[in-house]
Amino acid sequence: MAELILGSVVSSITEQATSLISREIGGALGAKDELKKLWDTVQAIKAVLAEAERRQVQDKAIRDWLKKVSGAVYEADDLLDDYSTEIKRRRLMEGNPNNRMMKELRTFFSSFNRVLYNFKMADRVKSIRETLNTINQNKEKYNLGEDNTGNAPHNQIRDYMEKKKERDDDPYFCQSHLFGRDDDSKKICTRLFNDSTSDENVSVIPIIGIGGLGKTALAKQIYNDEKVDKHFSLKFWVCVSHNFDEKIILKKILQQYVQQCDGIKKVEEDCRADELRKKIEGKKYLLVLDDVWNENRGIWLNLENYLKNGARGSKILVTARSESVVKIMTRDIPYRLEGLSMENSLALLMKMAHKKEDEWKNQILEEIGREIVSKCGKVPLAIMTIGRLLCYKYTEKDWEIFNSQEFAGIKQETDDILPTLKLSYDILPSSNALLIVAYFPRTMSLAQLS
Known about the structure:
InterPro entries: Apaf_helical, NB-ARC, P-loop_NTPase, Powdery_mildew-R_dom, Rx_N. GO terms for molecular function: ADP binding; ATP binding. This is RPW8 domain-containing protein. It is a single chain. By secondary structure, this protein is an alpha/beta fold. The protein folds into three domains: 2-142; 182-336, 3-Layer(aba) Sandwich (Rossmann fold), CATH 3.40.50; 342-438, no CATH class. It has 20 helices and five strands. The protein has a five-stranded parallel sheet with strand order 2-3-4-1-5. α1 packs parallel to α3 and α2 runs parallel beside α5. The protein is flat, with a radius of gyration of 29 Å.
């Protein structure tokens, strides 16, 4: 997915080249001409980037072409950064005539040195430009033409992303389209209700599986089950994510305790974790730790120390992607969540595509749908994503074209749903913004810029 950031870097190069062309340094010894040629070449590559990024998922040759573009583009970006820095350095020297050090530097950067520097830079720009030009010419081998698709207004997907403000640490926000997980829910609840499965009062029940299977949604369904409410005296839900901070986790648990038992909306800052140990003592509780990534046993033991006082039968339900995460927490066999059945996968796809049963059942659309969900690996998140795309494909012909062209070559790996999800990424108008936001930790709050 690293190639996706290329568009932003290419834009940076064209902006820097434009700026340098207009400045004094760009005019010496052919540097200006080379910068203009570089600008033209980069623009030509930029024109086909969007198309190449879409097609690279199913075409290894284009993927290799993008890697070559990536190397040359980053080298060009670094070079223009150096060029811009040199301009700033010269302006700094010229702006401090009374500074002795600046005078010495001006002596060093004599007219001859400036000419020599410009000559070398022009030569370096030419070298990179020729490399990029060769790469640009090779695009014809892959039938890469200018991308004229624009930013298709797939409003449903965009709205879905924009309106998904409910956070994972809200256990009462549940997806209404949780398909095919009743059997999983019953099996996990059986383990939750068994108070004699462990020698300890508090035992850990892990749910593991790749991203997109619906571990969090399943845990929420269980958390909100009436039988669970009756079985446990207390319930706590904490979305942990990458930052496994025992103090934060304990504070969130304590916050939920006082809301449930004392009716207080906010925990005082000076409340100590020891208070939680006292409050849960002798009470049968259910704690859900969602999306755990920590593999440090010492950190886990520090947290566990505060949770041991619960009554016999207390449970800690953990959702995680890696078996390494749960091995440090318990010796019990984790519950491994798999993909949906074919029938449930098909039903989910058609629901997301707004297709009524009489529109697809026992028809060609059903055959196409089966092929699509198979490519999605029967992973709910991938199926839902593709289903939303198919909302705008109204006929069997449209679905056939999508399956044979846009979705051709996509194969869902057992541990990776990114190729499938990338299709929805490609049509979003704010792709670069999503890439930038993706660098921030999952639960981090971002301040809005005015």
